[in-house]
Amino acid sequence: MINSKLPQVGTTIFTVMSKLAADNKAINLSQGFPGFDCYPYLQDLVSEYLRKGFNQYAPMSGVEDLKNRLAEKTKILYDIQLNAEEEITVVSGATEALYAAVTAVVRNGDEVILLEPAYDSYAPAVVLNGGVPVYVSLNLPDFSVDWGKVKAAITDKTRLIMVNTPHNPCGYVWTQEDLNTLAELIKDREIYVVSDEVYEHITFDGKKHLSLMTHSLLRERTFVCCSFGKTFHITGWKLGYCLAPKDLTSEFRKIHQFLTFSSCTPMQYALAEYMTEPSRYIYLNEFYQKKRDLFCEGLKNTPFKFTPAQGSFFQLVSYGHLSEESDYELAVRLTKEIGVASIPVSVFYHDQKDHKMLRFCFAKDEEVLEQALGLLSRPLF
After folding, report:
1. What is the pLDDT of residues 240-274, one digit of tens each?
2. Do the domain assignments include residue 144?
3. Which pLDDT band holds residue 151 (cuts at 50, 70, 90)?
4. Which of the listed residues 247, 277, 307 is the one where a domain comes to its end?
5. Which structural domain, as residue segments, surrounds residue 332?
C-alpha cells in the first residue's frame, strides 16, 4: 500500500458538488467556471493556427508573441515594463504556476503563511514540498487581512506568504495599505510572496486591482500567477502565466520544465493575436459587474444576508441568523431539494471552520442566474 503524501486529501469539493448538481439536474453555481463560451473569433484563431501547422512543442517559457502581448498588457495596466524573455512564463494553468512557484522557494521545514479562507491547492503544494502551512484567518465580515496576526505568525522559519487578490471565495480586493504593510513586514527578511491574481480583471464599483508588482519592494520578491481561463472564458484550455523578476523566473522555469515543459502551441498563438486589441480584457469588469448586480438584486428576495463582492465572480451569502445547519449540509440540501448547487465556505479552512456561509458563482448567463434566484427565493428553512 502506498504511504500517501497527502493522507487527508480526497476529491475536491468542486468535483463533489458539480457531480451532485449533475446527478440532481441542479443549476451549478458551485464550481468556478463561466457558463458561456469564449468569443467565436478566438475559436476561429485556434482553428487557423491548427490548420497552419502550429502543432508541435512551443518554447518551454512560452510563445514569443504571447509573452510580448503579456508585457504590453502589464505596461498598459500597471505601467510596468517587463522583459518578456526573462520575466514572463506561460504555463498550463494558474494552478501549475502556483505549484511551480512554491516548489521554487520552499524547502523542508520552511513555514508558509496562508490566509484563510484559502483556495484548496495552496496547502497541498506547500506540504508536497516539505513546507509547513501556517494559517492566519482573515477578518470577518469583510475578509480583510489582519496584519497584526500576520506579523505574529512570522518566525525565523517563514519562507513564503501566499496571497490572493481579488480573493476567492470572498471577493476582497487588496488596498494600497495592504501592499505597503506586507512590504514593511518582509523588507528585512528573506521572505518571498506568491500572489494569486487570476481575477485581476474582475473588480467592481470602481475598485482597482493593485497587482503586487506595482509595489517596488514586493515586485522583487513576488511570483504573480494569472489565468487566461478566467479572463477569456476558456478555463478548459488550462493556460496561465507567471510574472516574476529574472532571478525568480529562472528558478521557476527549472520546475516548470519538468512539470509540463510547454503548453498548448496553437492556443498560445491564438491568444497572442486575440490580445492585440486591449479592449478584450480592459472592460471585462463591466461585463461581470452586470452579472454581479443582477445576482445581488435577486438575492434581496431570499432570506440570505450578503455584502456585494468587491471582485472575482463569486458571491458569498450568510445564513447563521436562520439556521444552525452546517454549511456542507445546507449546500447538499439546496442542491437536492431546491436545485441550486453552491460551495460551503468551510472547505476553504484547514479545520473546516463553519461561519454559516455559501459561495455562489455568478459567471453564468442572465437567464440561468434568474432561474437560480427564483429557486432560492422559495422557503429554504
Report:
1. 999 999 999 999 999 999 999 999 999 999 999 99
2. yes
3. very high
4. 277
5. 13-31+283-376
The CATH number covering residue 255 comes to 3.40.640.10
**Count: domains in the chain:** 2
Grid cell at residue 60: 518551454
Q: Measuring CA to CA, which residue among 217, 170, 160, 97 is closest to residue 317?
A: 170
Cell for 352? 473546516
- The reported pTM is 0.95
